Amino acid sequence: MRNVPAVAGIGLVLSALVLQGPAAAADDSELRISPKNGAPGSTVTVSTTACGSDVTYGKGTVGGDEFHLFDDDHNGVLTGHFRVPEEATSGGHDVIVKCPPNVQLTDTFKVRRSHPSGGVDAGFGPAAVGENKPTLLGGAVLAVAAGSVLMMRRHRSVRRE
Question: What is the pLDDT of residue 7?
Answer without folding.
Answer: 52
